[in-house]
C-alpha cells in the first residue's frame, strides 16, 4: 500500500523521473497515513500542501543550494572553499561538471526538485476526485492553484539550471515535465513542449484564484489558512512567475504585461502592494527587504544558517574593499546595498579578514525577517525595464535607482546595452538568492560580463543531466 508521511509528503522520485528502480527512496516515517486517509479531509489537503512548503526549505533546494551555495558557486560568489582546487565550490566555479563531487551536488538539486514535484502531484492526483471534502469557500481553488504554480516554479528552475540556453534551444538537455505520479518513465520534452506545459499550469493557477485570493480582494481572511499570503504562492506570485517564465521564453510582451501588473498592484489604501525597499528598511535591520517579497519562505532556522555559513566566514567575498565596494558596487558611496549589506569580519582562529553578506542576518530569538525570497518586486522592475517601451523603462529605472540610493542616469538606447546594465544589477540585487546565474545564462552572457568568474575558467552554462538519468 502506498503511504505518505503525514504533513511532509515523501514520495518515490523514480516513479516520476527517469531514474532506475534501485534509486527508490526508502523512508520509514514515524507516522504513516494512506493517501486515501490523508486526502479524505480538507485538513489533510492543507497539511499536505504545508508539507510541500516545508520541502521547499530543504538543504538541496531553496533553503541553501538553490539560493545561497551551489547556484552561487557557479558564478564565484564566494571565496573560502571556492579558492581551494580540491573543493567542490572550486570545481563548480570552474564549470568542472565531470568531477564526481560537483556532479553529485548538482544531482542533489535535480532530485530534490523532482521530489517536491512528486509531493505536489500526489495532491493534484486526488484533489478533483475529492473536491467534495472541501467545506470552506475558496480552499479547493487555492490549494489547487498553489500546487499548479509551485509545480511550474520547480520545473522552471530545473529547466533554467539543466536545460538549454534560451537563445539556442536545440543545444542542451531535454527534460521531463511531470504531471502525474507514475512508475512509467516520463517522456523528455522539446523546449517548446516543456514551455507549453509550464505556461498551462500557470494559466490554470491564475484562473483559479484571480477573483478569490484575499491578497487581491484586499480583505482580512476569515480562515487562518489564508493568512500571510506573501509566504504562499498567491495570485501576484503566480503573475510574477509568469513574468519570469515569459522572459525566459523570450516573450517580451507578455513578460512586461505580467511584471507591470504586479508593480502596479495596490492595497486597500491605494499604496503599492509590494514596494521597493529603501534605506529605512535596512536601518531597521530588514536586510532581506521583506517588503519586496511577492513570495518567500519563512525559515525558522535562518539564524542558524547565518551563523554556520556567513558569520564564521565560510561564505565570504574579498578581504578588502576592492572586491565588494569597487568591483561589485562601483564605489558609489550612496548605494544602500553597498553601505549596509556587507561587513568585514576577522575569520575565526585567524588574523585574516573577509567580507560577509548580512542579507540573512537575523536575531536568534525573534521571528522578524526570517524569510528567504523566491520572487521579489525588484525582479519585476528588472523584467519590465528590459521589456518595456523606452519611456516607461526609463521611469521604472529611475524609480529603482532612487530606492537604492543611486544617482539618476539615462538608459542607453541599444537593447543589448540595457541588458548589460541590468546584468550588473542582477549581480548586486540577488546576491545569495540564486538569480544572477540564471540572468547570465538566459542572455548567454560573455565571460567578460560575468563578474568574478575566474579568468582561467571556460564559461559553460550547459550543465549535464545527472548520471542517474543517463540510463
UniProtKB/TrEMBL annotation:
Q: Where is the SusD-like N-terminal domain?
A: 23-172
Source species, please?
Pedobacter nyackensis
Q: What is this protein called?
A: Starch-binding associating with outer membrane
Query: Tell me, what's a Pfam family for it?
Result: SusD-like_3
Entry-linked InterPro entries:
SusD-like_N, TPR-like_helical_dom_sf
Amino acid at each position: 500500500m502506498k503511504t505518505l508521511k503525514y504533513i511532509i509528503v515523501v514520495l518515490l522520485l523514480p516513479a516520476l523521473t527517469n531514474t532506475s528502480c534501485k534509486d527508490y527512496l526508502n523512508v520509514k516515517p514515524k507516522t504513516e497515513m494512506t493517501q486515501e486517509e490523508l486526502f479524505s479531509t480538507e485538513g489533510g489537503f492543507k497539511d499536505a500542501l504545508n508539507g510541500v512548503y516545508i520541502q521547499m526549505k530543504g538543504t538541496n533546494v531553496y533553503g541553501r543550494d538553490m539560493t545561497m551555495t551551489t547556484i552561487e558557486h557557479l558564478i564565484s560568489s564566494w571565496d573560502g572553499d571556492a579558492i581551494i582546487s580540491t573543493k567542490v565550490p572550486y570545481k563548480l566555479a570552474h564549470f568542472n561538471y565531470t568531477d564526481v563531487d560537483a556532479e553529485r551536488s548538482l544531482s542533489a538539486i535535480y532530485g530534490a526538485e523532482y521530489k517536491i514535484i512528486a509531493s505536489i502531484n500526489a495532491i493534484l492526483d486526488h484533489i478533483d476526485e475529492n473536491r467534495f471534502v472541501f467545506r470552506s469557500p475558496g480552499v479547493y481553488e487555492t490549494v489547487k492553484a498553489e500546487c499548479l504554480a509551485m509545480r511550474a516554479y520547480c520545473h522552471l528552475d530545473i529547466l533554467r539550471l539543466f536545460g538549454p540556453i534560451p537563445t539556442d534551444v536545440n543545444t542542451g538537455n531535454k527534460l521531463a515535465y511531470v504531471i502525474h505520479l507514475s512508475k512509467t518513465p516520463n517522456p523528455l520534452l522539446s523546449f517548446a513542449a516543456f514551455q507549453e506545459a509550464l505556461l498551462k499550469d500557470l494559466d490554470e493557477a491564475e484562473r483559479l484564484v484571480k477573483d478569490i485570493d484575499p491578497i487581491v480582494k484586499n480583505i482580512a481572511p476569515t480562515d487562518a489558512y489564508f493568512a500571510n499570503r506573501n509566504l504562499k504562492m498567491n495570485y501576484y506570485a503566480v503573475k510574477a512567475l509568469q513574468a519570469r517564465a515569459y522572459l525566459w521564453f523570450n516573450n517580451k510582451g507578455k513578460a512586461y504585461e505580467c511584471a507591470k501588473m504586479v508593480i502596479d498592484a495596490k492595497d486597500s489604501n491605494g499604496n503599492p502592494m509590494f514596494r521597493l525597499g529603501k534605506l529605512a528598511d535596512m536601518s531597521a535591520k530588514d536586510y532581506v527587504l521583506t517588503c519586496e517579497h511577492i513570495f518567500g519562505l519563512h525559515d525558522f532556522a535562518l539564524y542558524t544558517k547565518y551563523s554556520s555559513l556567513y558569520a564564521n566566514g565560510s561564505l565570504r567575498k574579498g578581504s578588502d574593499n576592492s572586491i565588494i565596494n569597487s568591483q561589485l558596487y562601483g564605489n558609489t558611496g550612496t548605494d544602500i546595498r553597498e553601505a549596509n549589506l556587507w561587513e568585514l569580519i576577522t575569520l575565526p582562529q585567524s588574523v585574516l579578514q573577509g567580507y560577509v553578506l548580512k542579507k540573512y542576518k537575523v536575531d536568534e530569538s525573534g521571528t522578524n525577517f526570517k524569510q528567504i525570497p523566491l520572487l521579489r518586486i525588484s525582479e519585476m522592475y528588472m523584467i519590465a525595464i528590459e521589456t518595456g517601451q523606452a519611456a516607461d523603462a526609463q521611469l521604472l529605472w529611475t524609480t529603482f535607482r532612487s530606492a537604492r540610493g543611486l544617482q539618476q542616469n539615462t538608459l542607453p538606447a541599444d537593447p543589448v546595452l540595457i541588458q548589460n546594465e541590468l546584468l550588473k544589477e542582477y549581480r548586486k540585487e540577488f546576491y545569495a538568492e540564486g538569480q544572477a546565474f540564471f540572468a547570465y545564462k538566459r542572455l548567454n552572457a560573455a565571460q567578460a560580463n560575468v563578474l568574478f568568474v575566474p579568468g582561467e575558467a571556460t564559461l559553460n552554462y550547459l550543465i549535464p543531466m545527472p548520471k542517474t538519468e543517463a540510463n
